[in-house]
């Protein structure tokens, strides 16, 4: 990965290596691939053998900036990240949310200049795999290359759903849909606790994800609570009425392709 000019703090973080157990680094990735792609034990061993440099990033910090040339792909070990675009006026649109076990910049293997920003939402532990290492793995294990290609196609499916969500659903349904999607993805990696799950976004960030203002986002959150659908507090969502939650979101999870048969 290349540090942005004039950002010495990024260069410092790149030299800050952490000692994290190998199984912890790859656990969520392997668990997710078992569900979505049916990864074999032989391919699990190949992934577990990948050299990964682990670094710690503060919240709200760019990992790869729009316009940079990346030389590594980023695996989220712990924390939440987002992809976004910022227009000339300074307004930002969050394009997708990313959780442990995901590699949100796989496209940088083939799209050499980033056309959006990947940044942390929370303090994150991130693992970096060089492009050269991934290319060698893909040549050696074509099935793994297919699984990562499937991952990028699932990303595209989620982008399509987010376009529909922002463009066609009213704000309360937009928020419910984003919440359910996040919950279903977290469930795969064992990060849902009963009817509660993490969604560590500020009201401003929720607005950026839904295409509304922070004030409007605040009103929508209050509406969902007053209608007895969900409670959102301190970065955690508690579902109060599952049926109303699904009906409001108009949610069909096929686009997440959480099975090798989908």
Automatic annotation (TrEMBL):
Q: Does the record's keyword annotation contain DNA-binding?
A: yes
Any GO CC annotation of this UniProt entry? cytosol
- One GO molecular function term? DNA-binding transcription factor activity
Which keywords accompany this UniProt record? DNA-binding, Transcription, Transcription regulation
- Report the leader peptide range: none
Cite the SMART domains for this sequence.
HTH_CRP
**Record Pfam families:** cNMP_binding (PF00027), HTH_Crp_2 (PF13545)
Q: Which SUPFAM superfamilies match?
A: cAMP-binding domain-like, Winged helix' DNA-binding domain
> Which InterPro entries does this chain map to?
cNMP-bd_dom, cNMP-bd_dom_sf, Env_Response_Regulators, HTH_CRP, RmlC-like_jellyroll, WH-like_DNA-bd_sf, WH_DNA-bd_sf
| Segments forming domain HTH crp-type | 169-243
Superkingdom is: Bacteria
Q: What is this protein called?
A: Transcriptional regulatory protein
Species source reads Bradyrhizobium diazoefficiens
